[in-house]
Design a protein that fits this description.
heterodimer, A: 248 residues, mainly alpha, globular, B: 268 residues, alpha/beta, Rossmann fold, 6-stranded mixed beta sheet
């Protein structure tokens, strides 16, 4: 337990100390909120879909969570590069606990980024339809964060250096985000695209945020929870396995 | 004297390549032992096997009474290690790095604080304990790593090229600390170095490994006598030849290289 706690604490401390990282990682979501939220708002309205800003905020929260979460997982490569990983690997603690502590820490940080985007949106005029459901949304945010931190860690465990990082951003994170329905409604999508969207775990996360914050549903909260929970367990399992195979 | 490390017939193969080829040696409790060899001779591989980071392909290791493969946790509690490259968290303070280590090694909170204070004072970093490690110089980082490696009262401390890139002042200080600890706490010191005069001066016994084989063991004086040379350096060259060894950069080396570039200021 103490091992998990100290590894969690380390991630939190590192996060709170890198202000430039906090601010830097908020730039992109804010740009999406402002440029798309206001830019496409009138078109969306004319198409009879309602308020685009309200629609977009849960999607951008999801975006901020997935980017931060995968990045937190990938940070493992940095620890390898800067040698710190060796310190944990020769310690008399199980690798499973190291993996769990790291993942919880990364997921907490990612959830926190999602909360910041939520708060900024509220200041910019976003109104959740029922404030009582916001804490429930928080649980789903944490779940999404866990999933993608574990995925990031799993990938980082098999990458040897940072050269694969760009590859992951372009061929994994970006598609996961753009094909998740974060930016567009799912009704009326071409069948092929809809099929891909349904394959993307982030779609279910964003659906759950929308259900709980703006009362727009696609899959339903039960389906969302089941899919997210199953994929999270799978990613944690694979991540732990790959992490335990790391050789230094 | 008892042996704290006993290695018998140790082998490590990577595919077809035999990095460590049937080596045997002992390290006595409380001695300062130098493990020498040219680049690529099998030093690092052997240290990794001793410190549970690699599993041997054959042979046996007994470390403080434990087998590093079957009793990894017990073996790990027995030693502290200072790696060739820094393994501190730059974004944490010196005290936080100590705290982190203490928790991982299950040192009780009270003892952790006392020992941290004692060791940081010992390596003259106590007044810098709340500074972030990224503000430290190479020598300060090295001292902090030594203090950290000793926090859990290990029986053995491994040092992989601990003085590489340090100026003579820092180097002498560092060895003074270690010799002092060796005397007062009876801790066994196992180190590698490319500075032969250092090995001759500090180590009570040395082992020389080349091409995965141990080619000689004994005190510096014994090796000089055996090879009829005047210095350990000459003895070393006579035993291992004059050919320069080219080591292919493995992924870890490449990353270290990249790491140095990222940091902008390496230890070298």
């Amino acid at each position: 337990m103490k091992t998990i706690y100290i590894l969690w604490l380390r991630q939190i401390k590192r996060y709170l100390r890198s202000r430039s990282r906090i601010i830097g990682s908020l730039g992109q979501p804010l740009l999406f909120l402002l440029a798309l939220g206001y830019g496409l708002g009138s078109v969306f309205q004319k198409a009879g879909e309602g308020n685009y800003f309200q629609f977009l905020v849960p999607g951008v929260m999801g975006m901020s969570i997935i980017f931060t979460a995968i990045f937190s997982g990938i940070e493992l490569i940095w620890d390898r590069q800067f040698g710190f990983l060796k310190e944990t690997m020769v310690a008399p603690v199980s690798r499973v606990n190291i993996m769990i502590g790291r993942t919880l820490g990364g997921a907490t940080v990612a959830t926190f980024q999602g909360i910041i985007v939520f708060l900024i949106s509220v200041i910019a005029g976003f109104r959740p339809y029922n404030w009582a459901l916001v804490p429930v949304a928080l649980v789903f945010m944490l779940l999404v964060a866990l999933l993608f931190t574990a995925l990031g860690t799993a990938i980082a465990s098999v990458l040897e250096d940072m050269q694969g990082f760009q590859l992951i951003m372009n061929f994994l994170v970006m598609p996961l985000f753009f094909l998740s329905g974060a930016l567009f409604p799912l009704d009326g999508l071409p069948a092929v695209l809809l099929g891909i969207v349904k394959f993307d775990p982030l779609s279910y996360g964003i659906d759950s945020f929308r259900i709980l914050l703006v009362h727009i549903a696609n899959f339903g909260l039960g389906v969302d929870f089941t899919v997210l929970a199953l994929v999270t367990v799978a990613c944690l399992g694979v991540g732990t396995y790959l992490f335990s195979k790391i050789q230094i | 004297m008892d042996n704290i490390i006993a290695v018998k017939g140790l082998v490590k193969k990577f595919g077809d390549f035999t990095a460590v080829n049937d080596i045997s040696f002992d390290v006595k409790k409380g001695e300062i032992f130098a493990f020498l060899g040219p680049n690529g001779a099998g030093k690092s591989t052997t240290i990794k096997m001793l410190t549970t980071l690699l599993h041997p392909s054959g042979g046996s290791i007994v470390m403080n009474g434990w087998n590093p493969v079957s009793h990894a946790s017990d073996a790990r509690k027995s030693f502290g290690i200072v790696f060739q490259d820094p393994s501190l968290d730059d974004e944490l303070t010196a005290a936080e790095n100590m705290e982190f280590h203490g928790v991982l090694y299950g040192v009780p909170a009270k003892l952790r604080r006392e020992r941290t204070e004692q060791l940081l004072k010992f390596v003259e970093l106590w007044d810098r304990k709340d500074n972030l490690v990224k503000e430290f110089s190479g020598g300060m980082k090295r001292r902090l790593e030594i203090a950290r490696g000793l926090l859990h009262h290990p029986k053995i401390i491994f040092l992989d090229e601990p003085t590489l890139g340090l100026d003579p002042q820092t180097r002498n200080h560092m060895w003074a600390y270690l010799q002092e600890l060796n005397k007062t706490e009876g801790i066994t010191v196992f180190f590698t170095t490319h500075y032969m005069e250092e090995a001759a001066r500090i180590a009570q016994r040395v082992a020389i490994i080349d091409h995965g084989k141990i080619v000689a063991t004994g005190s510096a004086a014994e090796l000089m006598k055996q090879t009829e040379t005047q210095s350990l350096e000459d003895a070393f060259l006579k035993l291992t030849g004059n050919v320069i060894r080219e080591e292919e950069a493995n992924s870890a080396d490449r990353m270290r290289q990249a790491g140095r570039m990222w940091r902008g200021h390496g230890r070298r």
